[in-house]
Amino acid sequence: MEMQVREFASLTGVSIRTLHYYDEIGLLRPAHVDETTGYRFYNEQSLMRMQEILFYRELDFPLKNIREILSSPRHDTNKALADQKVLLTLKKQRIERLISAIDAAMKGENIMNAFDNTAFENYKAEASKKWGHTEAYRQHEEKTRDYSGDKWQNLAGEMDRILNDFALCMASGKTPDSPEAQQLVKALQEHITGSYYDCTKEILAGLGQMYTADERFRRNIDKHGEGAAAFISSAIEVYTGK
Question: How many C-alpha atoms does 58 have within 13 Å on its Cβ side?
Fold first, then answer.
């Protein structure tokens, strides 16, 4: 069974524009493209892959991570679906807990414990490790296996210094494409490569996008200076050309 992009978009509830973007970034390629008309065609395998993508998106995984997970030769669809079911169940339980908390709050009760999402986040982190097994993940595991507590602390300090230098660069009026900012991107890439894994330009570009797309990263980086995350993300985009 094959279908054109419009039919596939209607069936999956994903816009044609999004499907084109997924094709561009290598997340979901068409089964084939008609060389004469340029029409994209999708098949049952496309539907299965889209199903996995939608589950990961429902769990708030960045597109870059989804692409890495699905491209891994060790990826096991059935095991991933089982883990996704657990995560969605935890998510459902949290929503139900929050709904109950609203009723309690309306009665003037303390409901702060309703916001605890530790179980979900911990399970998600463990599942991500099992699903991924990317080359970068393997390098990270191998390189950091024997790191001491002092080593980790020193690396964290070095990263903080680089992020602070970015914030100072921004505060001084420099632009993301300035030589100073670009030199800092190079220092960031070298720090990651030397300490954790081979930080290619593709991986670096993904990190730059995550610095603004992931609220936790953005907040942490902006502690060095309001807007620092966006500044670094733009500088990385210039550096990588992505």
Answer: 16
Instruction: Look up tokens 């597109």; give the residue.
Output: 63
Each residue's pLDDT tens digit, 14-55:
999 999 999 888 889 999 888 888 889 999 999 999 998 998
Contact, 23 vs 40, CB < 8 A?
A: yes
SS3 40: strand
Question: Residue 33, SS3?
Answer: strand
Give 4's strand partners. Answer: 41
Distance CA 122, CA 129 (A): 11
Global confidence as pTM: 0.49
Contact in structure between 69 and 84 (CB atoms under 8 Å): no
- List CB contacts of 222: < 8 A, sequence separation 6 or more: 228, 229
Q: Please say whether the dihedral angle defined by the alpha carbons of residues 122, 124, 126 and 129, taken in this order, is positive or negative.
A: negative
